[in-house]
Amino acid sequence: MKKIKIILLIFPVFLFAEMKLGYIDSNRIMSEFENVRDIQVELEKEQRKLEAEYNGMISQLDSLKQVFEKQRLLMSENRRKEKENELINIERNIQEFQMKKFGPEGEIYRKQSQLLAPILEEVDAAIKVVAAQRGYDYVFDAVSGAIVYALEAHDLTDQVLKELKGSGNSE
User: Which among 113, 147, 145, 143 is positioned nearest to 127, based on CA atoms?
Assistant: First the structure.
C-alpha cells in the first residue's frame, strides 16, 4: 500500500518534469517599456485637458447657482421654475460629459485601448519569441495569473468541442 502511495505522489512530478513553465511580471514590463511611458504621457495630457474642461463646466454651474440663489426671491414663479430647469439641464449635460469622457466606455479608455493595442501586440510577440527560443510550454503573468503563452500542442479546445459534439449526438 505504501508503494502505491509513493508512486502516486511521484507520478505528477514526472508529468510536470517534462513541462517547462515560466512567468512574466506585466506590471514591470509596462512600467519599464519606454513606448508605454510615451503613451502614458500622452494620455495624461488628454486627461488633464478634459478635466480642465469638466472643471470649467462645474465652475460655470456653481456661478449660475449662486446668481440664481441671490435673485430667487425677486423672480416670478414661472421665471424661477425656468431657471431651475435650466440648472437641472446643465447638471445633466455635465453628468453626460463626465460619462462620455471618463466613464467605463468613455473617450479616455477608448484612446488608451487604441494607443496601447500595438504596444500589447509587441509585448505579446516578444513573449512568444522568448518562450519559443527557450522551450517553454507555458508562460504565466504573475500579476493576473493568466496564461500569456502556451504551446499549441497543449490546446485541447478542438478535442473538447469534438467530445461535446459527440456527446450531444447521443442524447
Answer: 147
CA distance 138 to 16: 11
Give the residue among 43, 50, 53, 49 at the shortest CA–CA distance from 116. 43
For 142, phi then psi, to 5°, come to -65, -25
- State the residue for C-alpha cell 514590463: 29
81 CA to centre of own chain: 43
pLDDT digits (tens, 9 = 90+) for 132-155: 999 999 999 998 889 898 888 888
Residue 106 DSSP class: S
What pTM was estimated for this model as a whole? 0.62
Q: Where are the domains of the chain?
A: 15-169
Distance CA(155)–CA(160), nearest Å, equals: 10
Q: Which three cell numbers stand for residue 1?
A: 500500500
Torsion over CA of 132, 133, 139 and 144, rounded to 10 degrees? -110
Q: Where are the beta strands (DSSP E) in the chain?
A: 21-24, 138-141, 147-150
Closest CA relative to residue 50, chosen from 103, 93, 95, 108: 108
Residue 171 banded pLDDT, cuts 50, 70, 90: very low
